[in-house]
Amino acid sequence: MNRIGDKGQLVIGCVLLQTILVGDSGVGKTSLLVQFDQGKFIPGSFSATVGIGFTNKVVTVDNVKVKLQIWDTAGQERFRSVTHAYYRDAHALLLLYDITSKSSFDNIRAWLTEIHEYAQSDVVIMLLGNKTDMSSERAIRRDEGERLAREYSVPFMETSAKTGVNVELAFTAVAKYKTVYTQWHFNTVHTWLL
């Protein structure tokens, strides 16, 4: 089955979805990626990402194979200009904060401003409150995350890279949304061109 991606690329038997993990340093982006890709949590083994790292993983969404090309970005300010370059080609962004860190939550608005400045207007954004396994140290209530997500009209869920709670669901949810949108957009444009 051949499909045309929303950026015009022909993908043989698979939809390509460039997904970027963004958020402050230390919110668990790399751990979330490892949990999704390898199904495990490696405690204390990650230092801050320098620049950009990435992996590929194929998931099936509604009988369609979706190749997620997942980019893990550095959260430190000094690497922001590098991250900006990747926003332009992104199909989906998972924006993370740490539920035990008020500052990482407070910085979400700045991240969203940056995303809206550099990313395409049709990029899928999902807000994730990570580290739910540390609920005894929670600084941000779930309803605060939900309220912020509503304010920016983006989906929201809480995850735990340590236990795996909602990790796969977060990635497959953005893949499903973007796949449905791409099919609708392609069919609409194709019908209009006929």
Automatic annotation (TrEMBL):
Gene3D superfamilies per record: P-loop containing nucleotide triphosphate hydrolases (3.40.50.300)
Alphabetical list of CDD domains matching this protein: Rab26 (cd04112)
InterPro entries (UniProt xref): P-loop_NTPase, Small_GTP-bd, Small_GTPase
Gene Ontology MF terms: G protein activity; GTP binding; metal ion binding
GO BP terms: protein transport
Uppermost EC category: hydrolase
Reaction(s) catalysed (UniProt annotation): GTP + H2O = GDP + phosphate + H(+)
SMART domains: ARF (SM00177), RAB (SM00175), RAN (SM00176), RAS (SM00173), RHO (SM00174)
Annotated signal sequence range: none
Protein EC: 3.6.5.2
The entry's keywords: GTP-binding, Hydrolase, Lipoprotein, Magnesium, Metal-binding, Nucleotide-binding, Prenylation, Protein transport, Transport
Keyword Lipoprotein (UniProt): yes
Lineage top rank: taxon: Eukaryota
The protein's name in its UniProt record: small monomeric GTPase
Species name: Mastacembelus armatus (zig-zag eel)
